[in-house]
Amino acid sequence: MDKVKILVVEDEVIIADNLCDTLDKLNYETLEPAINYTEALEIISGETPDIAILDIELGGRKTGIDLAIEIKKNYDFPFIFLTSNADAVTLEKAKKVNPSGYLVKPFTKEELYTSIEIALHNYSEKINKKTASNLVVKNALFIKEKGVFLKINFNDILYLKSEHVYTELVLKSDITQVIRVSLNNIIDKLNSDFVRVHRSYIINTNYLTQIDKTSLKVKNSIIPIGDKYKNNFFKRINIV
Length: 240
Known about the structure:
Rossmann fold; five-stranded antiparallel β-sheet; five-stranded parallel β-sheet
């Protein structure tokens, strides 16, 4: 289970470091901060963040708004603008790229936290991938726990088990995460590695180790196969 990963793009190094320290204290993961447009794109291309905080007034020819345009065009994650200038002209420029949030310096720790959480929530609504208090972005589920979003990569999930209105996510770390959403609602949010094998089970085929007539083995767990799902399941795997 991973923390939400945040990229800070700020040309004042001291401010960037202080902001990253605050984010760490709020239980987020921060990437190495970038001071300009070029550095930011290098970081994004190597390790795409879950959300970015972009200073509008960056040093150099390209601004934070230019970076936001590039993110919207070629990447898929939300961003919050950061500025010490709240004049009408700057606001109009910022509004044209539809940021997920807007912070004016100086701001408090609470304002920063609120902006990030609202940005994540609103972004999930925008892309129509929200399920209860959980959301899906880039091959991961974001589970809301104790007021923050925690990221669970699809690759960390062994299988999902239905428990009435809840779903258990059984992870390869032997941790079980419970979320209030049905299997029917979550299956369309998963990638092609996942297949439903029973009315109460969805498995990650990457961890499938054994197949029997009435059951499967996923890592060390025995999962039943429902008659309704057998044909689709066997079409998804290679049998020689």
